[in-house]
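Sat 14:20. Reprocessing the chain from the morning session after the first attempt stalled halfway. Input below, unchanged.
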Amino acid sequence: MKAAQFEYMKPATLAQALQTLAGAGGQAKLMAGSQSLGPMLNLRLARPAQVLDVSRLNELRSVDLVQGRVRVGASVTHAEIEDGRFELLRGHPVQEMAARIAYRSVRNRGTVGGSLAHADPAADWVLAARALNAQVEICAFEQAPRLINMQDFMLAAYTTVLGEGEVITALHLPVLSEQARWGYYKFCRKTGEFAEASCAAYFEPVSATAQIVVGALDGAPVALEALASAVARSGVVAASDAAIDAAIRENIDQLDTLGRRMAAAAVTRCLKQAFGAHA
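Finished this time. Tokens:
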């Protein structure tokens, strides 16, 4: 199929994009990498009157250190992070994660903000951002930017707190200390496809942060808080097969037997990455 007719616009500034979006009455869509919106347009699942291309706006394409956190512009692509284009993200956990998103052709175009806004439950950024206690920066026309904790941002599959006229402008990530431990594991039917089961883990002694988060569910990622606290206190020995299975059963009721086994295996392998020889 072909997309329904729409007006293509390329705003010169973020302010212009926000103003146009605010005046569109819900009939405009933003486009950055178009890896999600493009197929939806062609299948006519989305029929906006206007498409605003924000892929090259300078305000959305920088990576800076802001108040002790790494601010990643929403139109930064997965490939740019993978390739180490931005010094602040070299060696950061998201560099390795970005390198495993879909295929290189998708990573060349797909953006951080686009992935978060689309909120596919099996996507990589919604899981990694949740485990890292990231914050999503949101802007609207003539309003001050606001920060939303990632745990509050995604409400359900393809559903977020974004209101009409609001735009993701950046993702705020923590700066990791040398003591931080990180793991990310996902099962895919073949390389490049969406995950069937996934897990991200983040332990940061400096900030007393402990996260084990399971993704690729029916909705938003789910944190295994008690298990993460036990691992933070006692080490990875606390994450026995029985403890992992119990945590999944207690926190995630949507999985069948196979789903629980796959999720448990993802948690086990994720923690092995995080703790290496200690796992």
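The first strand starts at residue 7 and ends at 9.
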